[in-house]
Amino acid sequence: MQIIYSGYSCKQGWFFTPCSSDPGLSVRSIVVLNLPSYGSGRNPWGNLKPDYLEKRGFVEAHADDGFLEVFGFKHGWHASMVMVELISAKHIAQASDIRFELRGGEWTEAYMQIDGEPWKQPMNKEFSTFVEIKRVPHQSVMVKGD
User: Fold this and answer.
1) Planar angle of CA 67, 70, 72, nearest 5 degrees
2) Domain named Diacylglycerol kinase accessory: which ranges (predicted)?
3) How much of the chain is in helix, strand and coil states, percent to nearest 5?
4) Contact 112, 121 (CB under 8 A)
C-alpha cells in the first residue's frame, strides 16, 4: 500500500485537485472513516492524546461512537508517511453526517473513492455537485442460510 501512495504526485489522481481554498486547511485528499483502520489496517486518525482531543473539540474515535472521522493528506508523500505511521494525518472534523460541495470551475471531474472503488465524479462549471455521507441507524450483516 505504501508504494502506491508514494507514486502519487500533485499532478495526478486524487492529489491533483486542491480540496479547499482555505489556506489553513491545505489538503489535497480528504478521507472519511467510521472504522479505526484504513489501508491494510493502518490508523491514520491516530491515538490522540486527551489534551489534543479537548483542544480540538474531538472525542476518542470508536467504530460505534456515531461519528465519522474526517482527515486529510497534504500530498502524496504525506499520505505515504501517514501509512507507515511516521506522522499523523491532518485532523479536520468528526461528524455524524457529512456533505461535500464540489465546485467545478476549470475542473470537469473530481477523483473519488468509496469502499475501495474509485471513480471520476463529473462536475459542472456552473452548478455545485453534492456528495452526502450519512450513517444508518442499523448495521447490515450477511448471514449464511442453510
Assistant:
1) 165
2) 4-118
3) 15, 30, 55
4) yes
The answer for 113, left when phi > 0, alpha when psi is -120 to 50, beta otherwise, is beta
**CA–CA distance from 82 to each of 2, 44, 47, 106, 119 (Å)?**
9, 6, 13, 30, 23
Q: What cell was used for 145?
A: 442460510
**Are 140 and 129 contacting, i.e. CB atoms less than 8 angstroms apart?**
no
As given in the structure block, the three cell numbers for residue 135 are 450513517
Residue 127 to residue 15: CA distance in whole angstroms = 23
What tens digit of pLDDT does each residue of 88-119 get? Answer: 888 888 888 888 888 777 878 888 877 677 88
Cα 129 to Cα 107: distance, rounded to the nearest angstrom: 12
pLDDT for 118-135, tens place per residue? 888 888 888 888 888 887
Query: Grid coordinates in use for 56?
Result: 480540538
Q: Using the 8-state DSSP alphabet, how is residue 48 labeled?
A: -
Q: What type of residue sits at position 98?
A: I
On whether the CB atoms of residues 83 and 44 are closer than 8 A, the answer is yes
Residue ranges of domains in the chain: 2-134
